[in-house]
Amino acid sequence: MPNLQPSIDRAKAEFYGNHFVRMQRDEPAQALDAYRRALAIYEGKLPLTHPDVGRGNYDVGATLLEQGKYREAISSLGRALAINEKLFPERYDSAYA
User: Most exposed among 59, 72, 75, 92, judged by the fewest C-beta atoms under 10 Å?
Assistant: First the structure.
């Protein structure tokens, strides 16, 4: 199986770096596009429960939230939360105890 980590690392560097620059320049639509492209790469190359997929969903959701697109944000943030709950159940088991 080929090592996918270098391409994943490049995607992270490109999209995360671009997001912060674009958000600082008040270009949230372009930042959202970059996050969605990064998420598509992660979902295509990693298991859907991988932490990077969770982070990608969080980033998309947080950017949508900043834009006032609450329904879309809830969907992405919900997927991120579901992944985190699977990866780190100890953080969530006692939350409602």
Answer: 92
Global confidence as pTM: 0.72
Radius of gyration of the chain (CA): 14
Half-sphere exposure of 89 (CA within 13 A, CB side): 2
Task: Say which residue the tokens 């995607």 belong to.
Answer: 11
**Which structure tokens are listed for 38?**
């990064």
Place of tokens 């991120």: 80
How far, CA to CA in Å, does 84 sit from each of 9, 11, 15, 72?
21, 21, 21, 19
